[in-house]
Write a structure and sequence with these properties.
This protein is an alpha+beta fold and about 350 residues long. It has helices at about 1-45, 235-245, 295-300, 320-330; strands at about 50-55, 65-70, 75-80, 90-95, 100-110, 115-120, 140-145, 160-170, 185-190, 200-205, 210-215, 215-220, 225, 230, 255, 260, 275, 290, 310, 315, 335-340, 345-350.
Length: about 350
């Protein structure tokens, strides 16, 4: 009898201890989850004021007039993507608290898909590029952007959480992802690259800057959208040089020699390749193709009416006038590479630049 009572007492103690252990584990888990949620909330509150909404040039099908950027100095320097949105003398910059400023482009580098803007303001919250970091696959991240124009004033920008799925390079798959940028990228397991999100910030879970969200690009082989981010390490040196005035773009309008500036003769224009653009009636008429001449190199390359010419080589085409200037610098023997936007796809074509009999 005494033995049975002892066994029952031991069993009761074991059950009670198990109950206490389970409750302690639940309490610890709840505390951990609450702390994590609080930490995320704090990170969002700290990062959001460093992200700005950008409103600029738009027009035409699929050319929305809004985007995102992030502050990198207390004096109002902003990093964003180089795009048609900046195709105006000034753009509207809206801060997290709703304040509006006129922003000007102070520098850009098309091969990096990068532009730096400036607003006249002081004492702003910003990402210190010297404290930016990097991460590998599996790292938990937060993406901040004005996706789908969710914010026009003091409304908060969107925040998406996910993980880094891989770190790779676009250069290895240039044929699949038509982009002037061909460096390293983070592939993110989250839908970060939406309309208006380009130029947004990707951070670690605790708010350290990782990179800049890229444009909307489709994998032309699988017809799927790519969610990618350009690491800040690929951009920071150029950003610093632009801010300090020491940057010289890879794009050179002139050739320097012997202390004199010599412009290349303008031997070519769009019709030499069979391209007829829409009439150049305003200061910055987009370079839409009106028609393609029969039997021309453009027809052979597959260009079509209504295609919007975005790049000649690595140089952004902001208007019909810019297209004229870029084609005018070609010389016989060059390979003309053109990137156009066709509905919701980017299409790249190449044409040989043949010698003109008039040269």
């Amino acid at each position: 009898m005494l033995t049975n009572r002892i066994q029952i007492l031991v069993l009761t103690c074991l059950i009670f201890n198990s109950f206490l252990s389970n409750n302690a584990a639940r309490a610890q888990s709840t505390t951990h989850n609450a702390a994590r949620a609080q930490s995320t909330t704090q990170t969002i509150a700290a990062v959001a004021p460093k992200v700005v909404k950008i409103f600029g040039a738009g027009g035409g099908k699929n050319l929305y007039a809004y985007g995102t950027g992030f502050l990198v100095s207390p004096q109002g320097h902003i990093v964003t993507v180089w795009s048609h949105i900046l195709d105006s003398d000034t753009v509207a910059i809206v801060l997290n608290d709703g304040r509006r400023y006129a922003g000007k482009v102070v520098g850009f580098e098309p091969p990096l898909d990068l532009a730096v803007l400036k607003i006249e303001a002081e004492g702003l919250p910003f990402f210190d590029l010297g404290l930016a970091t990097s991460a590998g696959p599996g790292a938990r991240v937060l993406g901040f952007s004005n996706a789908f124009k969710v914010a026009t004033g003091d409304e908060p920008v969107s925040v998406i959480h996910g993980v880094i799925a891989a770190k790779t390079t676009l250069a290895a798959r240039r044929g699949a992802f038509e982009s002037p940028y061909t460096g390293s990228v983070y592939v993110v397991d989250a839908v970060t690259n939406n309309a208006g999100a380009a130029g947004g910030a990707l951070t670690t879970w605790d708010g350290r800057l990782l990179g800049m969200i890229g444009k909307e690009l489709r994998n032309t082989q699988t017809n799927t959208w790519l969610n990618y981010v350009m690491p800040i390490s690929e951009l920071s040196e150029t950003v610093e040089q632009i801010i300090t005035g020491r940057f010289q773009s890879k794009k050179q309008d002139d050739e320097e020699g012997g202390g004199l500036t010599r412009k290349k003769p303008r031997r070519y224009d769009a019709t030499d390749f069979g391209i007829v653009t829409i009439p150049d009636v305003v200061a910055r008429t987009p370079a839409y193709i009106d028609r393609i001449l029969p039997g021309s190199p453009a027809e052979t390359a597959g260009l079509r009416p209504n295609d919007l010419i975005l790049f000649v080589g690595n140089d952004l085409v902001q208007s019909c006038q810019t297209l004229k200037e870029e084609l005018g610098r070609l010389e016989s023997g060059d390979q003309l590479k053109i990137v156009v936007r066709r509905e919701d796809k980017l299409v790249t074509v190449s044409m040989p630049v043949v010698k003109k009999t008039s040269e």
